[in-house]
Structures are given as C-alpha cells and as structure tokens.
Amino acid sequence: MNFKYETERLILKILTTDYAALVLNFLYTNRDNFSPYEAAKTGNFYTVSFQRETLRLELSAFQKLQYIRYYVFKKGNDNEIIGTISFGNILNKPYSSASIGYKFDKNHLHMGYATEAVSAAVLAVLNNTSIHRINAFVIPTNTPSIHLLERIGFEYEGICREFALINGEYTDHLHYALINHRHAHL
Known about the structure:
Elements: E1 4-6, E2 10-13, H1 20-29, H2 31-34, H3 48-63, E3 68-74, E4 81-91, E5 97-104, H4 113-128, E6 133-138, H5 143-151, E7 155-166, E8 169-179
Parallel strand pairs: 5-6
Antiparallel strand pairs: 1-2, 2-3, 3-4, 4-5, 6-8, 7-8
Helix pairs in contact: 1-3
C-alpha cells in the first residue's frame, strides 16, 4: 500500500501527527452531519491532542496493514480535508476481509468526490493487499451512501439487526460487500 494516491481531482493520503489540527477542524466542522451515523464521541475527542494520538496510532497500524485511513484533499489544496476513507476489521487468511467506512465534508457532497475517492481507495486496497472481500454496513436511511456503494459495485447481502450503537440505540444496518475475484484461488 502506498502512503498517497491521486485521482483526476483528488489526493488520498495517510497523514502524520502534523495534521492533527486539520483533522480536528474537519471532524468538528462536520460533527452535526456525521453524528446521525456514528457512535457517540468521548469528551476529549474534539481536541488536537486526541487527534494527534489517533493519527499516531493510525500510522502505526497502517505500517502493519492492520488499519488503513486515507484523508481526501482536492488537488492543489492540502489545507482542507474534504473526506476520509478507512478500512478496519482487517482479517488475514482464511477470511481476507476488511470493512470500509467513509465520510465527506458537508460542503463537498453531491459533486462526485466521494465516488471518485472511495473507488480509488477500494481499488488500491484490492490491488495491493490480499484482501478478498470488503464489507460495508449502512444505516438504512443513509440513501446517498447506499447509492455510492451500489454505483461502485458493492452488492446488498442483507440486514444486520441491532448492529451498532448509534446515539444510544442499537440500530439495524444494511450489509453490502464487494468481492475481489482476483484472489479467489490464492
């Protein structure tokens, strides 16, 4: 896996702790937009020190291919994060799978950036790791995310009942997956 990938309009990159303030700004500015779909945040989540430590842990996990998070920037503007794409729950053989998560700045929605970035990140993971299957779990009311997954080839597999604790309540999630048939016989 590379630390950086480019698309036509975007740059996806792994960040160092130097970017903690920028990450905090992205998360804090979009907190109302993200909160309906995420677990509650701890008291110190919205601090530079918390984000610095998170970036340190993410970099270490990336180097071991245990967790991957790319931050998304528009080309020519490395002072504003417009999104993030992560691959967690990475399991080695025989499972060879990961779960994807992503979120994008409220001012950069419906412009194709999410589709462009998520497609590039998925291809990078499938082409540069032994991951065979990428899972996605989506709250049923998050239709933009469902459309994005379907647009890039994820297929619906079913409902996960009371899958995640979101805003104090266990919520159902739709399960989507993308299978990399290139690794089918490895």
